[in-house]
Amino acid sequence: MTVKDETRAFQQAKLRVEELRSQVAYHEHRYFVLDSPEIPDAEFDALMAELRDLEAAHPELITPDSPTQRVGGAPVETFGIVQHRVPLLSLANAFSADDVRAWFRRVCNMVERDRFTLVCEPKIDGLAVALVYEEGRLQTAATRGDGTRGENITQNVRTIRSIPAKLAAGAPPRFEVRGEIYMTKSGFEKLNYERGEAGLALFASPRNSAAGSVRQLDPKVTASRPLDAFLYQLGWHDDGAPRATHWETLQWLKSLGFKVNPNIARFDELDDVIAFCEQWTGKRDSLDYEIDGIVIKIDDLALQRQLGFVGREPRWAVAFKFPPTQATTKLLRIDVNVGRTGTLNPFAALEPVRIAGATVKLATLHNEDDIRRKDIRQGDTVIVQRAGDVIPQVVGPVVSKRTGKERRFSMPKRCPVCKTPVVRNPGEAAYYCPNRQCPAQRFRLLEHFVGRGAMDIEGIGESLAYLLLERGLVRDGGDLYSLKLRRDELIAIERMGEKSVDHLLASIEASKERPLAQVLVALGIRHVGGEVARGLAMHFGSIDALMGATAEQVMAIPGTGAKIADSVREFFALDENRALVEKLRAAGVNLRDDSGGAREGPLSGLTIVITGRLERLSRNEGEDLVKRHGGAIGSSVTKKTDYLVVGADPGSKAAKAEKLGVATLDEDAFIALLAERGVAVA
Ligand code: IVH
Known about the structure:
alpha+beta; Helix Hairpins; D-amino Acid Aminotransferase, Chain A, domain 1; 5-stranded mixed beta sheet; binds 2-(butylsulfanyl)adenosine
């Protein structure tokens, strides 16, 4: 490089650094001060990473006010300011197992050891809080703020029930404990639903919702929000070091009455730490709160002190970050799909974007009201989210990226496939195409009929289902059973050879033996999924009994209300649906429940609801046991519920049970109850 080239490169780097700093500052303000981020965390991380890299290459560009030199944004002035006695720090990130190994090696070199114990904790995606206790009582609660000065949110934090106002004996006279305030996913969904109903703006995520709730000037508002907190660190303490390791500190915090995350683990081998990180990457969605990674900490506190800090990050800890599940992209168009019950489902056609290892081109949009509430327009830049196996969702628009050319969406007045005018039932958000003969409905219904959990017929995918209908070989699922008479036509249309046609026909034959519950699912009755169908099949014992049942008889089954009862009655009131049942009967499809319907047993008369994760039994096993011995399984807690069995990470049901005075059992007590009534658990 010539001197001239070098100056040019430096000038370019300088310009880019300035640009990045102003972008980072803008997004930090949106995130930390306004609680209204415009870009996903991963994009923000990428801006920060680019800035860090440039500063590393050109250290002369580093200034004390660079965002790399501090942790967060300035506190808002409306709350009092709390000066943190010891700053609240940030964590270095690791984006892969290799990054974790590199961190581990650096630490090993520094302390001249080749192994040490590590503690792993879920990284809660909430907001940091520092709690000062004096003489066992909560004195102040503060946000992180810029790391040295935070906002005084004591009055609001006092409303969070899991944060003790008074501690068990054994606490130091003065100390500070740190943790994360968060909102449960179920609480967030419920809150947003209620806000939507009330015409209020929706929160973008549980994190934003928690931050917004804690920063209310009126603590009553905070109190009404489903907030919770996990504590994970001792900030400072006046007298002596209470414990020698981080793990023991956490146990000690627990003993004082603090909520410590149950999913923490301690390992001596780095490989186990990495396996733990990978495990949680796959099962993060199973928790009712959001986590965005695993924090790995050195257990030995003396070793922590020896390692110290670099800038604002401790050397003794690192955050393994999960791959991002959100990204921004352009929403090209909003199209409408017709579902099997005729529901018009709007969906987003997106400019393809990579999220968590998959390319996303389509995302759901729920319904028209939701699109309105979130003000999503065609042509918008949108935040798209992908979680586990579920269909990607559009979270909301990035309003600042609007050009004015975006177009609002409204539902078509006619079905996009058969052109029948659409209808909307009062009280329901969805629009329907009322034409049961609509080709789109027939197609979706057939696809559903053969699907898993329904008749489970192998070998009929989307394209074959389409061809069968188009060529007039079948009109509904019932016609599949006469396809064996048209074997030659099948071979002709399919070009897939005799062998696969015979395989298909065998699979259709085998489906005649499916349990009644699966047949009920296959019929495609609105609101009748697997769980409800099992209840109906067991209770009525045969399709004929169900077809003859009154709405009241259907509603007598725990977990089924008027909505399901009406839908069942309406379904069997239609001639074409009765005709379908007759077609199935004529073909020899099983229409009886061979488990014998509701039976008498040692648990007769008991209604039990199970929530959360059980350890000894799976939830299905638990529910089957209850049903096989005459008990009823409810899907929600009501006054009629006798017991709520509470496993790990329960949702909102436990609170409901408490409110209604319904007895709760943990897994051991549940098993004891079964044993008491003579029901053995394998
Ligand atoms: S330890 C010096 N443990 O993540 C280390 N932090 O990106 C202090 N966080 O500021 C943090 N869960 O707000 C720690 N189990 C956990 C955490 C956790 C979430 C947050 C915390 C921290 C941020 C760093």
